[in-house]
Amino acid sequence: MAIDSLINEYFLTGAVAGLPDRHFIGGEFVESLGQQRLTSVDPGSENVLGEFSGGDHRDIEVAVASSADALKSWKRVSPAKRGEILYRTAQLMKANSAWLSFVECLDSGKTLAEAEGDVAGSIRLLEYYAGAADKLDGRSVPLAGNYMGWTIREPVGVTAHIIPWNYPTSTFIRGVAPALAAGCTAIAKPAETTPYTALLLAEMFTEAGLPDGVLNVVTGFGVDAGAPLVAHRAVNHVTFTGSVNTGVNVMQSVAPNMTRLTLELGGKSPLIALDDCDIDAAVEGARWAIFSHSGQICSAGSRLIVHESVHEALLERLVEVTNRIKIGHPLKNPDMGAINSKSHLDVISGHVRRAIERGSDILTGGGIMADPESGKGWFFAPTIIDNLAQNDPVVQQEIFGPVLAVQVVRSDEEAIEAANSTEFGLVSGVYTRDISRALNLAREIDAGQITINDYWAGGVELPFGGTRKSGFGKEKGWEGIEAYTKVKSITAKI
Ligand code: NAI
Ligand code: MG
Questions:
Q1: Which of 17, 289, 358, 372, CA to CA, is 20 to 30 A from 331?
Q2: pLDDT band at 50, cuts 50/70/90?
């Protein structure tokens, strides 16, 4: 259906037909053994979209058995054939991109344009890893005397993917596509507020020819479904994206089995504006860095580290553009969408309330809002807090909302020190017209990705992942598929 008819029908009826509500295991939707029912709500209107299964350890047992069984033949399927199935899934996604974007927008609260961007990016991920499936070569290694040696790359086996609610579609595809391309099977556990696109996509993979059981999706709460999945003995690799605390839990639960692990956790990423920067470019960069998806992005530019000589001019313009940001129902494509859940809205609001109580310098925003048309929905005003000290909680803690922490510095050295003085190391943006200064900062800042004179530069081809408490391991790019392989050395005596 065309996007306009989907939207009109939703605003007319408040209902969405065709949303899946059960686990997807063994190539079909199945009833849950766990008895809980969860609810997904449209964060832009507080309208209930539907109920879905809350699985538990019994559903995980079934899913893991199905994936372990499917692995036996999937790992022997020719790499070219695996790539072909991924490529066909990408084409199905393209044909259904209006529907997927519509569902993603409603389920997550991001604007329709942002959801469309995520779906397009996920299609690119599938195409990239479709092409990578038959290029996982090993090396030939010269040895002494009458010996020859090689390395081969084998799939790691059954992989588990714990998906967060901020990027339900792209985090799912980012993990599952390289895993399947490498010959692994995969079980995904979507977040408790955003179950739909993973379920819809699992069905699309099957339609594209993926054998039953190679990809399973179990929905439910983190403690009931996520925890038994990551702790399962038959799971060989876990990819977790989410909070630091849950990341620590996951590390502890995989330890007894020595399960391989990729952790993509939080951030407090800075955008650094030096004294010689293009102020307009920095304003534009900062605006998108923190207010895209209402700041609910692990790599959001949630800190602005600005040189004192451009501080005033830059903040004046940034406040001006921020004050023009319109919120509204995400399907109507406002500048900024909703906060995913009421509980997360309360978390953001708590951070800002405490900052206000400490007497912080709030330049704009600072409170909860609603859709001006309906008076409903979970929104937070785009907020800028100026002149913060390095040890301020707003500088140190991940808020995961549209709240920008501004720190003023007097030199490149101070900017580097400020950038490195949180426990995170995910991304950093550097704005300067001097390439040597830019490259010096790029070298000195401890983060997984540095962008120069832009904040969101990158693509599916580029590895992504942090250092320190932002996690370890890389997703996307070539590193993203190598993570799902293990190297075996083979030697022969002549
Ligand atoms: P969370 O880390 O608890 O949830 C992420 C995923 O982990 C969900 O699918 C959840 O069901 C699952 N999960 C929870 N406990 C689990 C366990 N013991 N074992 C296995 N899986 C488990 O994050 P939450 O509570 O939704 O958000 C809290 C904060 O986390 C946010 O405010 C934000 O700061 C951060 N976050 C970071 C994300 C990122 O992209 N790095 C994404 C989502 C949240
Ligand atoms: Mg939802």
A1: 289
A2: very high
> Taking Cα atoms as reference points, which of 54, 229, 218 lies closest to residue 158?
229
Instruction: Give yes or no for residue 247 having a pLDDT over 80.
Output: yes
Q: Using CA positions, which residue lies closest to atom 38 of ligand 1? A: 242
Q: Which atom of ligand 1 is nearest to the CA of 265?
A: 41
Task: State the Cα angle at 182 between 179 and 184, rounded to 5°.
Answer: 55
Closest CA to 223 of 189, 251, 197: 189
Q: How large a percentage of the chain has pLDDT more than 90?
A: 100
Q: How many A from CA of 164 to the centre of ligand 1?
A: 6
3-class DSSP state for residue 300? coil
Residue whose CA lies nearest to ligand 1 atom number 32: 400
Indicate which atom in ligand 1 lies nearest the CA of residue 344.
Answer: 32
Model confidence at 277, pLDDT cuts 50, 70, 90, reads very high
Take atom 11 of ligand 1 and give the residue whose Cα is closest.
Answer: 222
Q: Write out the H or E segment, with its range, that includes residue 150.
A: strand 147-155
Pocket test for ligand 1, best of 189, 232, 246 (most atoms within 8 A of CB): 246
Q: Which of 431, 421, 412, 347 is nearest to 391 (CA)?
A: 421
Q: Which residues are catalytic?
A: 264, 298
- Distance, in Å, from the CA atom of 37 to the CA atom of 289, rounded to the nearest integer, reads 36
Distance 413 CA to ligand 1 centre (A): 34
CA 139 to chain centre: 33
Please give the full DSSP string across 308-324, using - where no structure is assigned. HHHHHHHHHHHHHHHHT
Query: How far from 437 is each of 355, 429, 454, 462, CA to CA, in Å?
Result: 33, 13, 15, 23
For residue 94, report the distance from its CA to the centre of ligand 1, in Å.
Answer: 29
- The binding-site residues of ligand 1, defined as CB within 6 angstroms of any ligand atom, are 162-166, 189, 191-192, 222-223, 226-227, 230, 241-243, 246, 249-250, 264-266, 298, 344, 347, 398, 400
What's the CA gap between 190 and 63, in Å, rounded?
14
Residue listed under structure tokens 């020595």: 258
- For the residues 139-146, what does the mean pLDDT come to? 96
307-317, pLDDT tens digit by residue? 999 999 999 99
pLDDT in tens, 195-223: 999 999 999 999 999 999 999 999 999 99
Per-residue pLDDT of 319-332, as tens digits, reads 999 999 999 999 99
Token output for 112: 């329709």
For residue 130, the one-letter residue type is A
| Closest residue CA from atom 12 of ligand 1 | 222
Rounded to the nearest angstrom, the distance between the alpha carbon of 40 and the centre of ligand 2 is 4
Going by pLDDT thresholds of 50, 70 and 90, the confidence category of residue 1 is: confident
User: pLDDT tens-digit profile of 73-111?
Assistant: 999 999 999 999 999 999 999 999 999 999 999 999 999
